[in-house]
Sequence to fold (234 residues):
Amino acid sequence: MWIARQKTRLQELYREFPRPFWTLTGVTFIDQVGGALLYPFFALYFTSRFGVGMTEVGILFAFYAVSSFAGQLVGGAISDRFGRRNMLIFSLVTTSTSALLMGVVDSLILFYALAILVGLLVESGQPARQAIVADVLPEEKRAEGYAIMRVAFNLAIAVGPAIGGFVAGRSYLALFITDAIISLVAAMIVWRALPETKPEAAEGEAEGSVASSFGATERCCATGCSSYSWAPAC
Fold:
């Protein structure tokens, strides 16, 4: 039967990958659901809250896009220095706090500042996710692993807006609160169930500084190299 065959295939797929990978995949899905339930209604909230037009919305998203790019660069360097797990927890917790603040501020300038901060914090954890996949999977399984992560991301994008529409029908503030709670839940799962995967430095080899890691990031962006454990969106 088709259902039995698919069940068997899923069981085999689960056994092909280590538990830390599936923990990360679950965390990615949970966290992306939080973001996906909020962002489709972000422009509506912003225009109604501050009485502005689409020009201001465009400026807001431009700030967010630029800060997101910077967040990936900085996050990759920091995760190489202080660990993937620590960087991921930091990103989730601080994103939760920032999202909650965005739901209560009544100053347009402060909202712009928070959008920049959220962009930095949300994307700062992305290189750590990618590095964890590279750490726990052999090279021949990484492409499939990244594909599974993308499926989890896409499922979250499909589910999140439906939940967000239900929540937004009651309160826009509830969207920010729900997103904050989801990020905290994801952070708790990482703290309890995901081990640190950063490889130990070889004996006699000095551990690189944040500055040296950031320099490697700049070289990677300049040359298009793919030899680093995480791939910044250059």
Remarks:
- The two ends are 46 Å apart (CA to CA).
- Residues 18 and 77 are 25 Å apart (CA to CA).
